[in-house]
User: Which sequence fits this backbone?
């Protein structure tokens, strides 16, 4: 099923209320050609289940991994992805754009 | 994000009220500003502008970087007429992110079996539309071919802020419709009606007509400023 931003944030609330640790990742900035607009969400639970997207599937894996760190540490993180980024070889955007993703834990 | 903020944000969305979540990117501090509270907020001007555009984004103020998560209500489609075209239009519009409601007083047409997964109301439009509320995030498509059902809905829609009004029927049918609207004193407003309904893609089948209608609705939502915004700019 396709999910809307509405489903995504509602799911984050459901997961948290069910006692799971949850993180929300949000696209906060884009440069050049980026697959998902600013404001797009990806929500992640402590088991690595996720819903939504911050790119066309290019960096979701990396964001999920970082989100698990954020859940553990409790402090938000600002991530950047793109061809100029040193992580590009494993989690780059093939479209050549860059994005900034804010990852925060739901307390 | 605190859970109570997330709940409040989801609650505003459910109630179709706009809101902005303000995040200080340096320290993670957040606050939720409901549309009604924007004027009192220190960032009032920026929040108001973002809310009107319906776009999330980064701003700088007083040497700090804030991210504004702008939450405008999801667009809504009201189809008047539980007809064949509506059966194709409802799931397509739902997939495109619209809240879909079907209104038709004819109980043989307006059944949940014919319209799974969307709201179906077997009532006269003029009775239920005021309660549903025709706001500026609402599109309305009049699809019954029957003036007895379409016209009362059309009269209400023309007096409201709906971003899209479309009416099924040939040019001839529409000319007659315009005559009736003139009698009702709505000639000027009638220019807002998209008729014959839908983009001209040569649609023949009900599903193709639904595509042309949905395309026209997306065009109205995304390519033109919403009517109330134009009024404000003028």
Assistant:
């Amino acid at each position: 099923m396709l999910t809307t931003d509405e489903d995504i944030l509602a799911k984050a609330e459901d997961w948290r209320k069910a006692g799971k640790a949850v993180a929300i990742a949000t696209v906060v900035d884009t440069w050049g050609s980026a697959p998902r607009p600013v404001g797009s969400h990806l929500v992640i639970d402590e088991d690595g289940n996720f819903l939504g997207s911050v790119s066309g599937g290019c960096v979701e894996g990396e964001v999920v991994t970082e989100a698990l760190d954020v859940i553990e540490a409790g402090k938000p993180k600002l991530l950047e992805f793109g061809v100029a980024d040193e992580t590009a070889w494993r989690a780059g955007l093939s479209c050549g754009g860059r994005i900034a993703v804010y990852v925060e834990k739901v307390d | 994000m605190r859970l109570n903020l997330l709940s409040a944000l989801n609650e505003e969305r459910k109630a179709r009220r706009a809101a902005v979540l303000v995040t200080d990117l340096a320290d993670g501090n957040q606050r939720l500003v409901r549309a009604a509270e924007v004027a009192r907020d220190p960032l009032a001007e920026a929040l108001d502008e973002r809310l009107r555009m319906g776009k999330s984004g980064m701003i700088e103020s007083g040497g700090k970087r804030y991210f504004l998560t702008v939450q405008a209500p999801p667009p809504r489609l009201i189809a008047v007429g539980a007809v064949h075209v509506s059966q194709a239009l409802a799931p397509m519009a739902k997939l495109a992110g619209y809240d879909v409601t079907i209104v038709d007083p004819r109980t043989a047409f307006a059944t949940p079996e014919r319209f799974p997964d969307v709201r179906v109301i077997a009532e006269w439009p003029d009775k239920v539309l005021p309660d549903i509320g025709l706001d500026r995030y609402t599109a309305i498509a009049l699809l019954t071919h029957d003036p007895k059902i379409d016209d009362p809905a059309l009269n209400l829609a023309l007096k409201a802020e709906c971003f899209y009004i479309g009416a099924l029927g040939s040019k001839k049918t529409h000319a007659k419709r315009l005559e009736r609207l003139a009698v009702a004193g709505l000639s000027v407003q009638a220019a807002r009606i998209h008729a014959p309904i839908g983009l001209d893609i040569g649609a023949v089948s009900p599903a193709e007509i639904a595509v042309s209608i949905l395309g026209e609705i997306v065009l109205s939502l995304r390519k033109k400023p919403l009517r109330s915004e134009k009024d404000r700019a003028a």
